[in-house]
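hiii, so i know i said id send this last week but things got crazy w the move. better late than never?? heres the sequnce for the chain we talked about at the cafe, plus the structure i predicted for it. fair warning i was half asleep when i ran it
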Amino acid sequence: MPLTISEIKQHLPGFPAELLEEIAEHGMMKEVPEGVEILKEGQYIKVIPIVLEGLVKVFTRAEDKELLLYYIGPAQSCIMSFSSGLSNAPSRIFAFTEDASLLLLLPTDKLNKWVKQYPAVNELFFQQYNLRYTEMLDTINSLLFDKMDQRLYNYLLEKSKLKGEKILSLRHKQIAGELGTAREVVTRVMKRLEQEGKVKQLPEGIQII
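okay and structure toks below
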């Protein structure tokens, strides 16, 4: 999709006019449907995404198990992609669209220059480093110290908040994949949460009470 300066400014109001002009010239907007893999593990990154609308989820994989690391919402970017792209290293993560999303794609060769030239770009990605570092520490602490019922409940609360939905259309297999556990474990723990009055399993999805 062609870019206009007014569209970019609407989503990234802190960027100076000169940078907006460069982004309009060299960047690209892309509409991506829900459930599409936008970054593969091992891929060399040529463009860095900034989410303008929608939601993207980022995973890592170890020993054939997947683990959800964090979500990327509007006016946010993937710091792992940023790091791999600028260092020309293969990606260690993979990412899917959680919802239909509008992405601003910035070429890595230009971004390398913009980081040095424009403080607003540095500020954006410095904020992302802080945010993702905190989120990944929370994930590690949860894995080490939280019982599965608390992990699952926190996962549902976060997803409900991000999507703005009280009833989540989720299958136990999907939840297990994002939490790095087995579907049978999710089914057992979900029953326990339901007995405790924290959730209700409905035909249309999982309701948080």
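btw The domain at 5-144 is CATH 2.60.120.10 (Jelly Rolls). thought thatd interest u
miss u guys!!
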